[in-house]
């Protein structure tokens, strides 16, 4: 989805995210990563998966509709420099935020290996764009419907075993996938940066809802992150916290699907 | 509506007022101190602990006039000296006593822009009322003239009767002022600068205006309608608002001057990162900072479960850690969101609690339990990592510490468990790191608070700051006082520039 937000398009850097609302009074604030931006046009591109009420509602916005609130770019930008060989690993929807980071790393003169993974073929996104910047691109699917029939950790491990093991790994995707990637690279001592997508309310360092344990320190994803050293992140705690409201969220989504958003719009 | 003050009391007040007014000229100071302090009507505790309706209903006009008659109209106005915005307190109270409420309002309006807010949330007992001669004569600060309640009465009367006058705005100067943050300090700066004819834009990170007045202070203490009215007044004065705009991120602070050509910037971004206790179990599910808990309820309406998309944690047994006003707000909010049992756990005694006495009293009336001389050592969870209990230890009071309060000393081996499903941590806030992170030239102290001079000017030319981002966690009125000083400095800087431009 393209959103006209000229100031965000101008300021955003790889690694940053926005917070949006689909309703101004009663809507919730959800963080979404910025997949791309067009400064000239003044637009940002958001790629999201429908997982609950707000994303379902967002999916029904049509060209020309107004989003009641879009704020950003938030979070610290990715530190871009020349590392040498960087492996960028993206899982599912996490491929979206990985794209601008991989792009910037490529421009900084790094050799880029890209590993993309998803449950099945149709969930692999941005493949062409990634192929265009990658020195090497490996695709995996859980069901074997496309590319290698493997988890991303398999080729990631192979990369780490090579004589010229990567200088750095970036892993973005579902929490379980990032956790697995960090565990894969740890024995090889390869620095692994992950990008966390926790529950947030304000996103500007006020509420503390997004806190995670990183190396026994409490960090706030919205202002200290979203990127952290994957070997230090307490993923188990983070994953548990992500599910704090699962039941309520599932119920909201169910009600929303049953009611039908469109009908609601007409009756208003 | 059930209230503390019955119909009979209202009639009594009327009779009492008539009586005093008949002999008003003969009332000596002694007689005035003998007039009974008026009790403000409150919603019934049982009723109010289930709704967000405002707890304090306020004085009736008769009560306000009786209370005003208690004021001795001292020559040396000790009450004014401790008001951060120097309201002519005896002046406005005199007009209340004579029933000229509109005149009372204009006296307040000379120096205070947001009286309906200050009348509700100022800690008067440590400011104006602390030095009231009546309170001193009666050797009880609680028996001082109820200046705050009178201020609130006048502001409410003015609003309800449609008498609020917009402050006069001088002809446009062409100068532009950016205000970062729409909390108490920002609103004051906006009004003061706009009055001088400068164009003012307020930038707010949230989708709603008001800052801490909106997301922090609950509806039952400060109704949103009152914030809306104050903001509407600014809008009518010509102040512009830009919501969903995070200065530092959406635009760098210095870019407001360099790219957007603002002539001055005021930074009032408020307190930031909530402090946690640093104890085991603080990241379990069901542990919240008071900021998060209150923001979900106040700003995101998470209490309205049918309507709001922001979920609220379904709490039954709640432990609130801390003894300040924010702890009181969080505890009272938890009750209103349906918790069966809410406990405030504080390691000292009630005497050392920083919260306002009135807030503590209201919380107790509503059924909040207080556990003094206890400290939480760790939070325990179940296999799903949800909060199950807190482990407490008993404390005794020792020698006074740096804050002058007696230090709590833990009694070894006195540990015990309390079963709870929710823990709200209300032990203060650090500074918001956004501006300092993104503005390398901005000088901040080691706590991250922006360093300013006596005119609220920062280390960067044309940029001023005030409120909690400078003070650390303080009060609404202190923030307003800083805003007032910053606005004066900005107005002077811009006036000098205009003069220079005319001279050349």
The gist of it:
Chain A has helices at residues 6-11, 53-59, 95-107, 127-133, 153-161, 175-185, 221-224, 235-242, 246-259, 261-267, and strands at residues 2-4, 17-21, 30-38, 43-46, 69-74, 85-91, 111-118, 136-141, 148-149, 168-172, 192-195, 211-214, 217-220, 227-229. Chain A is of the alpha/beta class and 268 residues long. The radius of gyration of chain A is 19 Å and the shape is globular.
Structure report:
The complex is a heterodimer of chains A (268) and B (504). By secondary structure, chain A is of the alpha/beta class. Chain A is 32% helix and 26% strand. A 7-stranded mixed sheet of chain A has the order 9-8-7-6-10-11-14, with helices on both faces. In chain A, strand 6, helix 3 (95-107) and strand 7 form a beta-alpha-beta unit. Chain B has helices at 7-22, 29-34, 45-48, 61-69, 78-81, 89-97, 101-111, 115-121, 133-137, 147-160, 184-195, 212-215, 224-236, 253-258, 290-298, 325-336, 357-366, 434-438, 468-471, 476-503, and strands at residues 41-42, 56-58, 176-180, 199-203, 240-242, 264-267, 271-274, 287-289, 317-321, 341-346, 369-372, 374-381, 387-400, 406-410, 416-419, 422-425, 429-431, 463-465. In chain B, helix 8 packs antiparallel against helix 10. The A-B interface holds A 7-8, 11, 21, 23-29, 53-54, 68-74, 76, 201-202, 204-209, 211-213, 218, 220, 223, 234, 236-237, 240-241, 243-245, 248-249, 252 and B 205-207, 215, 243-246, 249-252, 270-274, 276, 278, 282-283, 285-286, 288-289, 291-292, 295-296, 300-301, 304, 307-311, 313, 384-385, 432-434, 437.
């Amino acid at each position: 989805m393209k959103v006209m937000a000229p100031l965000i398009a101008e300021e955003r850097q790889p690694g940053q995210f926005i917070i949006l609302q689909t309703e101004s009074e009663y809507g919730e604030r959800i963080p979404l990563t910025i997949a791309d931006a067009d400064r000239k046009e003044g637009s940002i591109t958001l790629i999201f998966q429908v997982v609950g009420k707000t994303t379902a509602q967002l999916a029904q916005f049509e060209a020309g509709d107004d989003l009641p609130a879009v704020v950003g770019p938030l979070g610290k930008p990715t530190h871009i420099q020349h590392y040498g060989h960087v492996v960028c690993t993206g899982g599912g929807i996490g491929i979206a935020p990985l794209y601008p980071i991989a792009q910037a790393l490529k421009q900084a003169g790094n050799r880029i290996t890209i590993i993309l993974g998803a449950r099945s073929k149709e969930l692999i996104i941005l493949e062409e764009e990634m192929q265009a910047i990658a020195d090497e691109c490996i695709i995996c699917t859980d069901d074997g419907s496309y590319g290698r029939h493997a988890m991303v950790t398999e080729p990631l491990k192979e990369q780490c075993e090579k004589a010229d093991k990567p200088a750095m790994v970036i892993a973005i995707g579902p929490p379980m996938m990032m956790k697995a990637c960090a565990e894969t690279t740890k024995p090889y001592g390869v620095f692994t940066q992950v990008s966390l997508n926790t529950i947030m309310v304000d996103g500007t360092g006020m509420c503390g809802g997004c806190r995670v344990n990183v190396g026994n320190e409490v960090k706030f994803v919205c202002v200290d992150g979203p990127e952290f050293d994957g070997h230090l992140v307490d993923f188990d705690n983070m994953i548990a916290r992500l599910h704090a409201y699962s039941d309520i969220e599932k119920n909201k989504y169910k009600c929303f699907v049953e009611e039908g958003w469109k009908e609601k719009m007409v009756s208003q | 509506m059930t209230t503390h003050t019955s119909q009979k009391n209202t009639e009594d007040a009327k009779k009492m007022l008539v009586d005093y007014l008949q002999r008003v000229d003969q009332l000596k100071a002694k007689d005035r101190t003998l007039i009974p302090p008026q009790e403000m009507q409150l919603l019934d505790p049982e009723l109010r602990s289930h709704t967000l309706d405002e707890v304090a209903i306020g004085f009736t006009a008769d009560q306000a006039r009786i209370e005003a008659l208690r004021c001795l109209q001292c020559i040396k106005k000790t009450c004014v000296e401790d008001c951060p915005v120097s309201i002519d307190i005896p002046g406005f109270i005199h007009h209340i006593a004579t029933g000229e409420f509109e005149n009372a309002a204009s006296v307040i309006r000379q120096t205070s822009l947001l009286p309906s807010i200050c009348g509700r949330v100022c800690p008067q007992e440590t400011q104006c009322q602390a030095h009231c001669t009546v309170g001193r004569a009666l050797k009880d600060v609680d028996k001082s003239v109820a200046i705050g309640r009178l201020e609130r009465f006048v502001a409410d009367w003015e609003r309800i009767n449609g008498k609020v006058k917009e402050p006069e705005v001088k002809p446009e100067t062409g100068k532009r002022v950016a205000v970062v943050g729409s909390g108490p300090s920002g609103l004051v700066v906006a009004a003061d600068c706009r009055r001088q004819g400068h164009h003012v834009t307020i930038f707010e990170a949230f989708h709603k205006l008001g800052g801490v007045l909106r997301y922090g202070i609950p509806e039952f203490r400060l109704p949103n309608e009152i914030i809306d009215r104050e903001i509407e007044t600014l809008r009518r004065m010509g102040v512009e608002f830009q919501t969903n705009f995070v200065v530092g991120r959406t635009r760098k602070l210095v870019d407001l001057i360099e790219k957007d050509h603002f002539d001055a910037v005021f930074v009032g971004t408020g307190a930031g990162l909530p402090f946690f206790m640093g104890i085991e179990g603080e990241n379990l599910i069901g542990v919240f900072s008071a900021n998060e808990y209150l923001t979900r309820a106040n700003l995101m309406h998470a209490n309205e479960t049918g309507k709001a998309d922001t979920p609220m944690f379904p709490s039954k047994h709640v432990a609130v850690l801390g003894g300040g006003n924010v702890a009181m707000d969080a505890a009272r909010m938890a009750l209103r969101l349906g918790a069966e049992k809410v406990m405030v756990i504080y390691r000292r005694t009630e005497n050392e609690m920083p919260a306002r006495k009135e807030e503590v009293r209201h919380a107790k009336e509503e059924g909040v339990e207080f556990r003094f001389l206890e400290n939480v050592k760790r939070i325990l969870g179940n296999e799903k990592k949800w909060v199950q209990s807190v482990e407490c230890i008993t404390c005794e009071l020792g020698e006074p510490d740096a804050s002058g309060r007696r230090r709590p000393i833990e009694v070894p081996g006195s540990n015990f468990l309390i079963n709870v499903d929710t823990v709200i941590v209300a032990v203060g806030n650090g500074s918001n790191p956004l501006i300092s992170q993104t503005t390398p030239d901005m000088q901040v102290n080691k706590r991250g608070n922006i360093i300013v001079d006596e005119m609220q000017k920062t280390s960067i030319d044309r940029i001023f700051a005030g409120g909690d981002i400078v003070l650390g966690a303080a009060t609404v009125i202190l923030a307003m006082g800083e805003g007032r000083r910053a606005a004066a400095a900005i107005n002077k800087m811009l006036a000098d520039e205009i003069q220079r431009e005319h001279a050349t």
